[in-house]
Design brief:
The protein has 329 residues and is of the alpha/beta class.
Length: 329
């Protein structure tokens, strides 16, 4: 095992070179969001989708757009609105008069990196169309099914403070997002630097430094990262504790959790922990990788009760209690 890990670490060291180039380009534009940037790269390496939630003006869209620009891949942005139709997303059939037949006109979803801006403004039919693409990696137009590119990632944003004209995301779709990231205000020094950059005569620009092939190659290596069975059991214990907290000695959480995390949470926690280990240059996962990502993977999968809402208890606070109680291997 020692020889295999040494070989894996050596391969990771070689593959990680493009990560440093990617971070350099992103940091030219995005300031003071190091953890957020790392989570976006984690989802990219783990082949997952991300949901960013935060008030307007926190550079959510800018981060996603900058990441896409630093990758030599196709990028599309869709501004979700209440009058959006599924055809606006996936495409439709168009009659070709010269050929006398219908032809499929592909929508913007046929891309590598899709920015779904203010996703909670789209109606249910659009959410349903996006759901198939996110989970099945395919799109059905009329009776024809087309597969999406191998590198396909949905990066969605939503505004938590404005509810007028919005449609809450269905739980089935929220569960398809590997990570839900909460975007906070930058620190004072970081915001000062951001003001300098964004108000200078020459705006910072980003150059493509990574190819889709490099990302797909890194993903294969991420799947090879070693995870001990005890850590897998730790992941399972965290997930099942959200469903039966009393059995884990957390009886006080029982009336606060309406529904716990789905089995998909455990899968995504393992995959994202491996990607996190890769970003740390390790060929093996440690418990800290799991703990680091637990809140981002679980916060949108734990549905709290009205009692918890009345007491202003969030899913993040519940997750912290679970992390403090479940035994670490």
């Amino acid at each position: 095992m020692g020889t295999k890990l040494a070989e894996l670490n050596s391969r990771i060291e070689g593959e990680m070179l493009f990560i440093n180039d990617l971070l350099t380009e992103i940091n030219k534009v995005v300031v003071g969001q190091e953890t957020l940037i790392e989570r976006v790269l984690t989802a990219l390496l783990a082949d997952g989708h991300i949901l960013l939630e935060g008030v307007p003006g926190l550079a959510k869209t800018l981060l996603i757009k900058t990441t896409a620009e630093a990758i030599s891949a196709h990028f599309a942005r869709i501004q979700f609105t209440p009058d959006l139709l599924p055809a606006d997303l996936v495409g439709t059939q168009v009659y070709n008069q010269q050929m006398g037949m219908f032809a499929v006109h592909r929508g913007p979803i046929f891309t590598n990196l899709l920015l779904a801006d203010e996703i909670n403004r789209a109606p249910a039919k659009v959410q349903s169309a996006l759901l198939e693409a996110m989970q099945e990696r395919q799109v059905t137009i009329a009776s024809k099914t087309d597969h999406l590119p191998e590198l396909f990632m949905v990066m969605a944003t939503q505004n938590p403070i404005e509810q007028e004209g919005t449609y809450p995301l269905p739980e089935a779709q929220v569960d398809r997002f590997m990570l839900k990231l909460l975007v906070n205000y930058p620190a004072h020094d970081a915001e000062r630097l951001m003001l300098d950059r964004m108000t200078s005569p020459v705006k910072p620009s980003v150059q493509p430094v990574v190819t889709p092939e490099q990302i797909l190659s890194a993903r294969k290596l991420v799947r090879e990262i070693y995870m001990d069975n005890r850590i897998k059991d730790y992941v399972l214990n965290l997930v099942t504790t959200t469903r039966q907290p009393a059995e884990r000695g957390l009886k006080t959480l029982e009336p606060l959790i309406a529904y716990g995390a789905s089995p998909r949470a455990g899968i995504y926690l393992i995959e994202s922990a491996r990607a996190h280990a890769f970003l740390r240059g390790r060929g093996y996962v440690i418990p800290d990788d799991v703990k680091e990502l637990a809140a981002d993977v679980l916060r949108h999968r734990i549905i709290i009760t009205y009692e918890a809402e009345a007491e202003n208890i969030t899913s993040d606070e519940i997750i912290q209690q679970i992390l403090s109680r479940v035994e670490v291997p």
